[in-house]
Amino acid sequence: MKKLAFNFFPSLIGILAVFGIWALVSAQFAPDLPSPAKTWEESKPYVLAPFEKRGEMDQGILRMASYSLWRVAKGYALALLIGTPLGFCLGLSPLFFRMFDPVIQILRPISPLAWLPLGLVLFRQSEPAAHFTIALCSMWPTVVNTMTGVRSIPQDYHNVAAVLRLSPWKRLTKVLIPATLPYMFTGFRLSLGLAWLVIVACEMLTGTPGVGGFLWQEYNSLIYSHILLSILTIGLIGYGLDRLMGLAESRLRIA
Amino acid sequence: MKRPIIFSSLTKTDGAVAVVKDFNASILPGQFVSLLGHSGCGKSTVLSILAGLQEASSGGIIIDGREIDGPALSRAIVFQSPSLLPWLTALENVRLAYAQANPKSSARSQRDAAQQYLNMVGIGDYAHSLPSELSQGTQQRVSIARAFSLEPRILLLDEPFGMLDSITRLELQDLLLDLWEQQRKTVVLVTHDIDEAIYLSDRILLMTDGPEAKLGRDLTVPLPRPRDRRMATDDPAYFQLRREVIGFLVSHTRQFAAV
Predict the structure, then answer these.
(1) For A22, left (φ over 0), alpha (ψ -120 to 50), or beta?
(2) CA distance B222 to B174
(3) Which of B256, B258, B246 is nearest to B36 (CA)?
(4) From the centroid of its chain, how far is CA B241?
(5) ipTM reported for the complex, 2 dp
(6) Which of B51, B85, B88 sits opposite A163 (nearest CB)?
(7) Beta-sheet strands, E only, within A101-243
(8) Fewer CB near the last or first residue (10 Å), C or N of chain B?
């Protein structure tokens, strides 16, 4: 109980402080910024009926979020499917590393806003273009962490695999993957954070339904409170995803 | 048919430095031989080449008339650190090795065999513990069980008791001696513990200091078997041998310091 009080109350005070500043700014300095109360008032139909569908771009906030989550899930899955084996190859083969490390270092800092048009050119449709963009932007932490994990496998384990003459498959499943798993999961967690970050940009540019698309549409319709609603939703979902991955990660560390 | 292990002008260079140079020796089947020398003299390098984990720069090692290239299940090794896979239980660690030596056995018989090997080293009760839950000494027992589960003809031991406290070390030396009495495998033990070498081996190969380490003296241990700890305090042959070994190591340290 004491521990709860110790952890919970400071967080609550922090959140209230931000709401306070928000209210102050909207009342004193930025008349176009809706106050917390007004935001709540205008967001009610979206929050209280979160799965309602009234039109293409007029849907409950969780319904919108579910579109975004599904889109992220696909792009993220693609990122892991490509990024994990790539990380293994980079970690295991110095030749492969020398070949592709420069390419990766160049691709890594490219913004989603740059990839999306290329995706649209390649696929001619917004959905695959969005998946392409999410995958390309979010896979790097998985690639780099998996590579680091493979490289930091102690020589002892390599020696054991060698003297037991493990087949490549057994070496992978019994030694390399278990030894790398904690690093891989750190990469997965960072990648998921990035994937969620990218989704908003993708939806804004393509105008597809989702939290990001909703945010952009409401900006164009001058309903600013819904921008704030979208921002809060994005933040809360991102936080939730990170906590989930953190839980999975801590399980692994114990094992 | 049983022929000795022959080290023929074994040389290993690391950059410009020859760690081991022209190491010549031969080991008979069933012998328990210790490689003894100062830390860093290159004795572990010799063992590592014998295990197939490193390649000789020139010369080589011949077993059964053929030069070794790479590791083989017939040459099992116990490392200084237990080197168990931490995500597998003691039983699974042993089973992984047993399955390599017996690829056609059923899952059931692999588990039974692994359990037998753990019983053999006296830790059957810890079969389902993860390495992190076991003491260093117990982990090293698992590692010994893993090596024996390969049913190797040659057992290589790379300072296997170096990280253990002295009482656990004595226990494991006696365990090893018991297993050797029963199975009479060829054993090559790398150590820097003089008493350990005398107590366990038939022969002690003393190595000169590196770089360019080679065979310095080849001593036969004249103590009868089975061995007994009291020999260390009671047997004049033990003192005599100990004096010879220490004399060699000291004179080579002087030589080294004088250069």
Answers:
(1) alpha
(2) 19
(3) B246
(4) 21
(5) 0.88
(6) B51
(7) none
(8) N
pLDDT tens profile A49-67: 778 788 777 788 888 899 9
Please report the domains of chain A, with CATH numbers, ordered by start residue.
60-254 (1.10.3720.10)
CA dist A215 and A204 (Å) reads 8
Q: Residue A174 is inside which H or E element, if any?
A: none
Q: Which domains does chain B have, with CATH numbers?
A: 27-53+65-74+157-259 (3.40.50.300), 84-151 (no CATH)
A175 neighbourhood in chain B, CB within 8 Å? 85
Task: Encode pLDDT of B184-239 as tens digits.
Answer: 999 999 998 999 999 999 999 999 887 888 888 999 999 988 888 888 888 899 99
Contact (CB<8Å) B87/A255 = yes
Q: Residue B53 and residue A255: Cβ atoms within 8 Å?
A: no
Beta bridge partners of B156: B77, B188
For residues A220-245, average pLDDT? 92
Which two tokens mark B173? 């030396």
Q: Which of B138, B136, B62 is nearest to B94 (CA)?
A: B138
Min Cα separation A163/chain B (Å): 5
- Is the bond preceding residue B211 a cis peptide, omega within 30 degrees? yes
Chain A residues inside the 8 Å CB shell of B100:
164-166
For residue A108, CA distances in Å to A95, B96, B230 come to 20, 40, 69
Q: Name residue, tokens 């273009």.
A: A129
Can you name the residues that pair with B7 across neighbouring β-strands? B25, B61
**B105-127 mean pLDDT:** 95
